[in-house]
Amino acid sequence: MQQDESFFGFETRLPRDMEPPSARASTETLREQQGLLGDAFGELRLDELERRSGSSYNPRSSGASVRDPWASASSELNSIDNREIFSDLHNPQPQQQSSSSYGVRDLGVRSIGGLEPVSSSSHAWQTATSPNFFGEKGDVEDGIPVDLSGLMDDTDSFNSVHNRQEFFNEFTKQTYLPYTPREEPMSMETTSKESSPWGSTAGPFSAFGGSGTWSTAAADEPPTRQVSIDQKPENSREDILSTISRQVPSVVPNVVRTPMTLEELEREFMPAPVQPVVPSTQQTPHHDGVRSPFRQPTNGPAFHHFQSPVPQSMSPDRRGVPPPLPPPSPFGMMDPNNFRHQSPRPLPPGFIPIPGRMPLPGGMPGGRGFPGPPPPMRFPYPQQPPLRGFDPTRGPHPGQFMPIRAFNGMPIRGVGGLGGPMIPPQMLHHMQQQQMGPGFRGPRPLYGQPLRMLPPQQQRHMMSQVFVNQRYMHDNNNNDADYDDDQEVAGWMTEREKDWVIKVQQSQVRTDNPYMDDYYYYVRSLKKATKDASKGLDNFTEQDFILPARMASDQKEERFPANNFEGSLGKVCISSVFNPRKTVDVDAVNIAKNRAPPSNQKRRWFVDPLQKEKGHPKALLLGIEDLYKLVLELQDFSREVAALPEGQREQGIETRRNIINLIFDRLIQGTTPDVRIRSFCDTVKIRKGRELLRRVLPILFKEQLIILTGYCVRALPVLMDVPSDKLEGFDRCLVSVEGSLRDLPLKRLVEMLSPLIDTQHNLVNTAYTGQTLLSQAVKNQFALHFLSIFLARAEDCYDAEWSALSDAEREKWTLLVTYLFISLTKAQAADVACCPSEALREAVSQHIARFPFSPDAVAACRAKLGVKE
Amino acid sequence: MFAMWNGGQNNGGMRGPPRPPNVNLPSGTAHLLYELDKVLLFWLRDGRTFIGVLKSLDQFGNVVVSGTIERIYVGAEFGDIERGICILRGENLVLVGEWDGEKEQQSGTQRRDIQYILARQMEEEEKKAKVKEGLQKAMRERGLNIRDDPEDDLFVNGGGPFHAGILGIRRELWDHQT
């Protein structure tokens, strides 16, 4: 030990509360004997104490012989003898507190150093035993009289077994795992009860939820208790304990949920005898953690590594953001410093470290909820005799104690362990040696041996049996088994636990509305699907709707050179998606001079219908913009509805229909048919309007589509005026037009096309009359295509419906076909546009052939149309 | 259900071939469960590095690591501190990756005594702090004030918990106590 300390040389730099308690006790006693403390720190500390403790501080109640230093002059403070204040507690050794008149609580309270607890002693504990996270506690601790080493020894050491045990006891109240006493007589027993610091302080276990999790249990804790070690074995107590253990069936979980812990029972049955603490001569901590495969072999003592001033000396500097926790020893290992200097106390009977299922850590981020309860606790290593024990000469081994499940069902091995109340191997070793003698062999799972499948109930039964009935350990003295301590047990997590973790995590990403919760993935997959589905013009899908064809076909990027002028301060403004160029001067239209927008109109701008009727281009653009908004909204909404589960789509469909109707109504606005047609033509004149039409046509209902097709016929002169390179894929809307005409009667066709012949219906301000229009139409690809669709449909239903037409209709239709025929005949073959579809061309030529034209001319027309013979 | 145990072969740590992950996850998904019983390196948010065998984990990414060492690198030298079994809280993990001891050897880094490493580390940090202090001073003289807030919860760059501020504060406490 001497060598160890000198080896690191950090021992003196430990923070006070990191120091081993006994060591600190001795140093403080020394300091106090030298009068250092009272002289150097007296006034300052007392003032500080008063300030900090506030109203809860009442020195009068702390002891019988306390003078009230605060009532007297402050100059007196230095003269206060701590021994005087705490005269009754002055004996540093707890075994000398033979005067049984001190109640347990008194001792516990006074040990704080005059701080009176408010409700229970938890407040005082918070002050006295919380680790020095923020540097305040050291001050307080310096201020209190320090000759309480015998008490502080037990209570202040953060990692002391007693506190862990305490913590564990509190904890086991809430869990169903029983702990029953061992029935072997022990040479000495220690029950140490002080009020637990765990309940009120967020100690190193704050990772498990800290005070939030267990504070209630700690608050309910019965009054504290002083160390009581009985020198003579008390038979009656053993009887009682064994009786208790028989009464409480260890296997049944429900029984153990009695509000009374073993301690309380014990306290009822026993008068509290006082016994000295056994000096620590027996046990050398031999901490051998779980052997890692990459650990360097060590020749020295096994705890050489853990002779760690390192974490402590490091901690103030190394821990950056979070407050420095004590070294991770509570989880991984016990602080060897504590163990070396502390008298190893044998655990009280029945204190078997079985942390049950711990509650979920309180401070952890909550998920959306668990799919179910976590997997029940299950003993990871089914019982399998013979079990190989440990070699007493080698000290305890990681696998020595039965693996323990804690913390949400995770298995924990006996070393160090998780969750605090684990007993380190030192203590285990000690305990076992005391109980069973040196030849005892503890149970240990056989590594690599196949384990039997057992139903869960049986496993749980076995678990409690193995844990609780320590007799099991005696039955298995198998000396010839030698185990390889290099072996690491793999598979701490069972399949079930893994599944549970996965299930929990997946439950967090489950969504009922992927369009809202997982927009980008959903839209991407949607686009991908439609892209895969639609290859070509014919299958027009939603992809087309999402991505305009122009965008899809335009591969070349437009790059604007970023102009930087010499010596200029700014840059030339370049429009981008984030900074679009202002193309519409909204303000100019926003307010019609003498017309305020209706008050109920919440739109940002207001399109004056009159201006729009007059064909004001800006008003038109604004109207189109409005329609675009609706289209985008509809598009969004459709996808949103599609993402919903089947049952909830109904109302969505209704809303969608409303939006579509609104779009249609806006598209042909106007009081009279003439106005409507005019505004429609104006819309179509603008590229944006055409694009809008192209996008709107596929989503309209069929009747609306037919109506719009009629409008398109009216607007055909306008569309013909548009240069073909500016149509930009507008002809794709003919796909939907064709679909709308598919089962239309011939009568309707005649009605729709009659405006072409009837010149008086030509409201569009173009130079075309009926015949001139058609003569140009055959030279325009879009127009020819458009008309071909009508003719093809007429050819389809000609046989059935021609006879049903009235004479006027027949005349009209004949006139139309005649005009078309004449136009084709007159036109040069090179000028005649080419209808893209072979079937359409064939149908048109066949339809023309039905009428009484000369066969030669018809054949010429066929050739001009490009029909192959 | 007991497939992990029934295998008979011990795949924990670096021994043996990697166990085929017996985890029911959607394909193409990475998950820490695949890394169970492998030696992993954990890089914590405060810059510390832990190496150990991943033993267990939960849905928050809290992990139980056994046989853990804390490895401190100073330049091309490193030293280890044994940590045993520990829980690393998931929110503190910056990076987790498989760790290969052989590559560590090949990489030219050198194992040194931990005492030495700690001393070196302290030196380095003090040096850094000085540089930073000088920088801050220079900036202040130019009217710029770098706000060095050590208490914020931002990710601290590797090896960087030794903020000048922290160092200063801790130093005071330190001297005060000892």
From TrEMBL, chain A:
One of its GO terms (biological process) is P-body assembly. GO terms for cellular component: P-body. One of its GO terms (molecular function) is RNA binding. Residues 1-30, 51-148, 215-237 are annotated as: Disordered. The keyword Cytoplasm applies. It is found in: Cytoplasm, P-body. PANTHER family: PROTEIN ASSOCIATED WITH TOPO II RELATED-1, ISOFORM A (PTHR21551:SF0), TOPOISOMERASE II-ASSOCIATED PROTEIN PAT1 (PTHR21551). This is Protein PAT1-like protein 1.
TrEMBL record, chain B:
InterPro entries: Lsm1 (IPR034104), LSM_dom_sf (IPR010920), PTHR15588 (IPR044642), Sm_dom_euk/arc (IPR001163). It comes from the Eukaryota. Keywords: Cytoplasm, mRNA processing, Ribonucleoprotein, RNA-binding. It is found in: Cytoplasm; Cytoplasm, P-body. Residues 1-22 are annotated as: Disordered. The keyword Cytoplasm applies. Belongs to the snRNP Sm proteins family. This is U6 snRNA-associated Sm-like protein LSm1. It comes from Hypsibius exemplaris.
